[in-house]
Amino acid sequence: MNSRRIILLAHGSSDKRWCATFEALAKPTLKAINGSRIAYMELSEPSLESVIHEGVSAGNREFTIVPLFLAAGRHLRKDVPAKIKALERSTGASIELSPPIGENPLLGHAIKDVVALQLDQGTSK
Amino acid sequence: MNSRRIILLAHGSSDKRWCATFEALAKPTLKAINGSRIAYMELSEPSLESVIHEGVSAGNREFTIVPLFLAAGRHLRKDVPAKIKALERSTGASIELSPPIGENPLLGHAIKDVVALQLDQGTSK
What we know:
By secondary structure, chain A is of the alpha/beta class. Chain A has a single domain, classed as Rossmann fold (3-Layer(aba) Sandwich), CATH 3.40.50. Chain A contains 4 helices and 4 strands; from the N terminus they run βαβαβαβα. The longest helix of chain A is centred in the middle third of the chain and has 18 residues. Chains A and B meet through strand 1, helix 1 and helix 4 of A and strand 1, helix 1 and helix 4 of B.
């Protein structure tokens, strides 16, 4: 078993419905992978900082952040790496940033399946 | 065969790398579904307006927009419906807006597969 803690990182929003969609998206991963968590970059709770601190308190020293973003923009190129550097410095943990999920070819295939399903079911949804 | 034209709608960005990720994400759908297109809401080309106008010129009268967004925020609740209303009025076409791809459970399962794959391959990527 991998003792590295997985954190699914979403942007965050003041809109509760937006967060509910991300919680549903994260559910299969949180269920399948022991100790994994969802965290938000801003505007929503739990924050990345609180999830890392909680893990460190529980004895975790290694974290992998998987961004629930389709592509990397300024947030993933600048803001999140800066947060990670500060958290590594303050906690002594090792925190790795994975590519955004949208860079994995599996996502493009899932999108094709979603569209094909929608066409099959008619478009009156 | 379905004569409805599918448009995968991404946000758009001035960052070419961001757009390249969306073009890769769209590729399996564009390959599998005849006449489907990618379009951008802002900042990138082709715009939604130009793709709808091109379709109407080619004889299409029905369009389904599938948002390449993980969740619905202000853009999908307000800006895109307003664009659609204006386009329907100016072209006479019927344009349907699907839920964002992230609302389909298939996406959550693809995310789980991406994370599991990453753990299997080690995290030194």
